[in-house]
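Record pair follows.
FIRST:
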Amino acid sequence: MGEADVTFRYLLRGLPRPILRLAFPHHQLESLGPLDPSVDRTRQRTTDNLFRVRDGTVEAAVHVEIERGWRIDIPPRLFDYASAAVAATRLPVGSVVVLLKRGGHPPEGDGVYRVPGIAGDAFVFRYQVVPLWELDARSMRASLGLEAAPFCVAMQGADEEFVRALAVEVVTDRSLPEHDRQSAIQLLYIVSTVILGVDIARRIFHVESIIQDPNVQALISEWEDKGRAEGRVEGRVEGRVEGQVEGRVLEARRVLYRLLAARSFSVTPDVRARIDGEPDLARLESWLDAAMVAGTIGDVFRDG
């Protein structure tokens, strides 16, 4: 799988159905794939977030953003994308922001963004807000199916035991097409790392029944340095704590590099040196959180 397949861009591109059902519960939207990249605008995010969908016999465009928490600059960005999509496609447009964590003051229900004109509002733009933490993970799992597993991690009641059970289901349920299962287990790992932290994600995915799956083995082997892994095994006898910490730090760096690549941020030699030279796991995890929503590479490292 390509570099973007284990990132939030692929999460949207490969598994849009759960979000479409959450945001538009009274519509049977069928995703037809990403919208034409020409809709993209300078200094904005990639248009992997823009989809062409079918609502019955009518085609439309849907813009989806996943954010760690609410920020006041979200509505104007949604409007910017929506207006670009309308101008480029002449299709009806819907906009959705999916919030992973509490933060800020998001609108309840539908959001409204008003663009002032000379005499009153020139535009009144409406968008959907989906705060995942307000949803029940177990009921949404039953309602949306296993393809929604990565989203369920951010929902209410998604503790370590529940996420582990999700991972086992994804690995063992043969009703999932192989491509969907591969995508789901990798994305589940990414979101678990962001929401629950590196330590818990490692405990979940190193359970025997999960780690035996070829997709998980491929992911773990790709993300773990062999020498570090051997060092952690030796560390059980001597220097166990140090070896485990080194392994978690290495894994956090790898996750961070994945997200930076997904966001199309340029990793310069200075940035790489900064990441590779950071030994503190908490600092790396804070950069990981920031990388999800940063507007520039500099925003990722604002905490120092």
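SECOND:
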Amino acid sequence: MAVARVTTAQADAIRRAYPRVLAKVLGLTRSLPDAEDAVHDAIERALKSWSDTGPPDSAEAWLITVAQNAHRDRMRRAKRTESHGDAVDVLAELSPWARIAIAEPEVLRGWKDDLLRLLFACCHPALEDGESAALALATVVGLSNDEIARAFVVAPRSMEQRLTRARQRLREKGDVEGTTPERGRERLGAVVRTIHLLFNEGYWSGEDAAPIRADLCRLAIGLSRSLSETYPDEPEALGLLALVLLHDARRDARLDDHGNPVPLPEQDRTRWHHEAIRGATALLEGALAMGKPGPFQIEAAIAAVHCRARHAGETDWVEIASLYALLERFRPTPAVRVNRAFAVGQARTPDDGLSLLAQSDIDVRAYPYVHLVRGALLADAGRKAEASSELEAAARQARNEYERRQIYERIARL
């Protein structure tokens, strides 16, 4: 079979359009696996026809139409339509608006954002959190298997297997659509965690070519806004929005003139967006006032303490250490324990931080940044040889070349 030649422009057009095309087609199929099949059919058609004619003015509209037609054709062939299916098909041919209305008016009316609706579809109760988040990053964002594997700190082969299991489980469970915002509350926690993962992948990317993916950060912020507008009474949704906005407020100070990352203590704080910090802090205060504390509100509070300091020496590490202790009650993960140990090392003494880190007994395979934090605390304690050994180990496990270079610069300063 001949392989269609695809230009870079055509591939970019498909990649940009894919998440929103899938979200629209999901409104018709009400099944994520069926929607994915239909969109993949449309992409195959695009690769064949666009190689001769080039992409149309609206690649998104073209792909939506072809994918919806492909789904209806597949339904007819499989004879899966109900007794009224012929009438539905006739109506669906009338106009795009008829197709959308048929999809399930109650569902579509409740969502302000197609991508958010798609995200909730991925976070099906039958899936584990890790599976939901991985599936969402692949489906909603279009991240590659390697990119998702880096976000989860697992081998690419393991991530590929996880995605396969998630898709298979959805096929076995049938429809994953039909979730209104009210019925979607049971999925809210998984959705919040997934958006946070997406933001983190953009905020500190594993790619050597770009340590920061501004496109992913913007998408995560947009989804966070839509989520908080859909659930204004959910403090964790507001806490997530406050958190990503606080981190994003530092974006202009995070890279130097050569595009290299600048560590938080060395950032020029006059370049931070202080109006955005004030707005995010107000959001956080509103969430905390609801009296239902949660991990994302606490993370936002930690970020707010960092943003409040006019310089690194003014950072209130005692408050940060207390907040990490509270966060550990909600989320006793290796990352939280390691960060708490570092905060304790700053608030008290480096030896106190090292002692807490040793008590945590964290497997470096579960969280490779253990070496980095232990090395930093050893350096603060004046134990240079041990610090150098730990930082060397951290450099070998660095996510990208930028991170590796920073660690070696730190070793040189010992």
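COMMENT: The chain is about 70% helix and 0% strand.
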